[in-house]
Amino acid sequence: MLLDTRAMRYLTAEDWRVLTAVEMGSKNHELVPTPLIERISRLKGGPSGVHRSISNLAKVGLIAKVKEAKYDGYRLTYGGLDYLALHSHSARNFVYSVGSRVGVGKESDIMIVADDKGTQKILKIHRLGRISFRTVKTNRDYLKNRPSASWMYLSRLAAMKEFAFMQVLQEEGFPVPEPIAQSRHTIVMSLIDSHPLRQISAIPDPASLYADLIALILRLAKHGLIHGDYNEFNILIREDKDETEDDPEAVTLTPILIDFPQMVSMDHRNAEMYFDRDVECIKRFFKRRFHFESTTPGPFYKDAKKTVGKDGVRRLDAAVEASGFTKKMAKDLEAAIREQEAKSSQGDAPDSDDLEDESGEDETGDEDEEEEQQVIGTIVPLENEEGLQKLTINDGT
């Protein structure tokens, strides 16, 4: 789904109240009845003002009707949730302008943004609804008490979990982006000048980088954690000048860890499987890309398990749970991610949400058609008449 923020400049205070009302109503209704939207928004203009805002929001795809619904109502779209999150970040000056999409996956979009001082940052937008969760809602019981749209709930959980893990990992000195803010299904984090490991075709010393990556797996384990998706897509490589070398061109390759929604505890019932999978992913990639194979076997889960909490290190799995990300939330999110993995491996295509805007067009559109952008685009700030900070994307025109 393409993030187009140009319509933000035209939204009135009443439009934002109505959009927020739809979000609030979605907590208990998959399709929010129009009378409920009127009661929650409490506009001074009454029902006519609400209907005017509903029309404005529907025309730009922030809310949508459901085909053949039994009653008059609307549901929040991903675009609407994006706008609410950006509105929150903008109000706190974390995001002032939006640039190009620089990464896209089955579960998230990665955008370049800038704050009110012009400092570039990364905005990660979790989109777990990209693969339909209809089968989840009918075949799983972990969402039985949440009749509202599962994609909003699960995407929010993914962002909450990732932000919580980034915070504790940074506190312990792990090489991760700085977590700045989290709102709904989005995270603002620092921008690191680096390249994904998958984009690197050759390195001067594969053995050294391999050792660093294995050491990070073992260091995480000592703190009670397993990354769960430790591969060339979720490892960035930063080039740091090596001041200890005589060669002024000498650099040190520093791995940076990203993407933590699938991180699990060393006490997880499937911990050994996840640990072994992370190790095997690195071994397989280095053999294929750099023709490097370690002569040292392992590391093995049983040995790493013995180091958990040793030397007085902090158990970060416990710290995240204490921060408010509960076991119930973790269970909901994990089940959804596993379901999505299963659907992906079977080659199932995402289902349409059966949404339509007031023009009758499908809401889903061409969300996955754009190729990943590698060049950062121009970042364009906008202001409305009251001087409030607004956002737009540079579309190259």
UniProtKB/TrEMBL annotation:
> Disordered: where is this region?
338-397
Top EC group: transferase
> Which GO molecular function annotations are given, in alphabetical order?
ATP binding; metal ion binding; protein serine/threonine kinase activity
Q: Which residues form the RIO kinase domain?
A: 67-310
User: Is Manganese found in the keyword set?
Assistant: no
Q: Where is the composition biased (Acidic residues)?
A: 350-373
One GO CC annotation: preribosome, small subunit precursor
The alphabetized list of GO BP terms reads:
maturation of SSU-rRNA
* Keyword annotations of the record: ATP-binding, Kinase, Magnesium, Metal-binding, Nucleotide-binding, Serine/threonine-protein kinase, Transferase
The cofactors required by this protein are:
Mg(2+)
Q: What is its EC number?
A: 2.7.11.1
Q: Do you know which CDD domains this protein is assigned to? A: RIO2_C (cd05144)
UniProt catalytic activity: L-threonyl-[protein] + ATP = O-phospho-L-threonyl-[protein] + ADP + H(+); L-seryl-[protein] + ATP = O-phospho-L-seryl-[protein] + ADP + H(+)
Q: Which family does it belong to?
A: Belongs to the protein kinase superfamily. RIO-type Ser/Thr kinase family.
Its name, as the record gives it, is: Serine/threonine-protein kinase RIO2
Organism whose genome encodes this protein: Trichocladium antarcticum
